[in-house]
């Protein structure tokens, strides 16, 4: 039987990590402590009320007693568990304080360059390029090319991959060491991959299996020459990201922020409430908007909040970057006010078009605002749309994405990236508060291309699109999928834009509008109010709010955080939004 070897490039790294070692308290232990603080009770009584095995209850109380938070007493001959004074105090906390110790340890890891997965070094067999197997009469070798750019990896993915039981990595000591290039080698026999951990991404597994199948097919159909192949065959694999999954998340109609004035009020309220951390990422920065925000930012810093301000406008060749220049002037004003230690203006572009605010709400919970508004450049007179996230798991994921916007060269993670990775993971584990929910999912840059196709397949009555700009990318990204839905289901389709861009102007834009109007898609400019929102919705209950200009931008697949949005599916969310928009515009 012919053996197929598949190799793929990896980057090997090694760093000294700061690790908190020690078991964390579970939700069950917290609830039992709270019960013992409310009223002393026996293990049998608590087991009956909680519907937990008596053994589980006893083991939990043994740990709580070792911590000094629970004691045993006897009443009428019955052994009861009662919270100690310090245990009663801790029972009221949002999370029980963990008894951990900080350690520093060297850990090594591999980042595979097909889909970006991270593994411990012992989980993959890796070799230098000069020592890879070669194709001969008894074996075939296929090599997958890198399709995942270094620097895209989530730092938190590295943490998760190399953490042991009862460990939590909270930081890295930078050593200046570079990632080294190697190649992983796996074997495929009878359609089964050997040497690849089961937790490898579906994209990587699919790429390996496809390469092996093609290699065997080529061997079976190729004429026998009697000579082994002289080189490793190259198989370039373009990997599509797996379809994102929706989750149940906190959502209320008040979480949808619509029009410029609502954005101004939301920004002011968010800054006013923050007591721990405030992070604002805006594509652009200008002096007028920055000056208007400065007093409230300084007040937040005086309350103890640490503030990070970031911009995404890319450098312009041979010209000054206006946002970078404005950011530098803002940083100087903050330094003059004596708050440089609390307010950090990041000096370099993130090259991201995302618009994000993350902050605590002053009461222990966290929120993130995602959408179309350039918070550090807006005059709040345009029609904008953003969505407030309150689900801890989603807010934590957004914070981890922010870590990816501040990456240094591959394998070197800035202090801010480390802080965001640790903060995001901590918030993800927080319990969900009370409130109404809907189905939601984050949309990264590569997810946007599939959403018009999803709308095409699911829409029964209508699809609508709002975009700041109309350009030549409108055809493949949004208009063609919508056109298919119109032809198949005779649905209502409307597209709205604020201005044309690039080569699509004048006669060209008029011709495009006429062409699609004739095929059932109504395309209209909106000048009053100025349209800056980026929204895609279908029927009554599905609405995507994002930073992507649906009618002018083609989202890049290799820069996942260059755009960011949210899809929410909730009763009447699209209908209510469209009604507000329809009433706001003047045709």
What does the radius of gyration come to?
28 Å
Number of strands: 26
**CATH topology-level name of the largest domain:** Endonuclease, Chain A
Number of helices: 16
What is the CATH superfamily of the largest domain? Answer: Endonuclease Chain A
Strand-pairing-aware structural class: alpha+beta
| Secondary structure: helix percent | 25-40%
**How many independent structural domains?**
4
CATH architecture of the largest domain: 2-Layer Sandwich
Share of residues in strands: 25-35%
Mean pLDDT: 87
**Sheet of most strands:** 9 strands, mixed
First and last CA, distance: 71 Å
Query: What coarse outline follows from CA principal-axis ratios?
Result: globular
Q: Runs with pLDDT <50, length 5+?
A: 225-242
CATH class of the largest domain: Alpha Beta
Structure description:
There is one protein chain. This protein has 587 residues and is an alpha+beta fold. It has four domains: 153 residues, no CATH class; 65 residues, Orthogonal Bundle (Arc Repressor Mutant, subunit A), CATH 1.10.10.10; 191 residues, Endonuclease Chain A (Endonuclease, Chain A), CATH 3.30.870.10; 144 residues, 2-Layer Sandwich (Endonuclease, Chain A). The chain is 33% helix and 27% strand. The protein contains 16 helices and 26 strands. The strands form four sheets. Strands 1, 4, 5, 6, 7, 8, 9, 10 and 11 form a nine-stranded mixed sheet that branches. Helix 9 links the parallel strand 15 and strand 16. Helix 2 packs across helix 3. The termini are far apart. About 3% of the residues have low confidence.
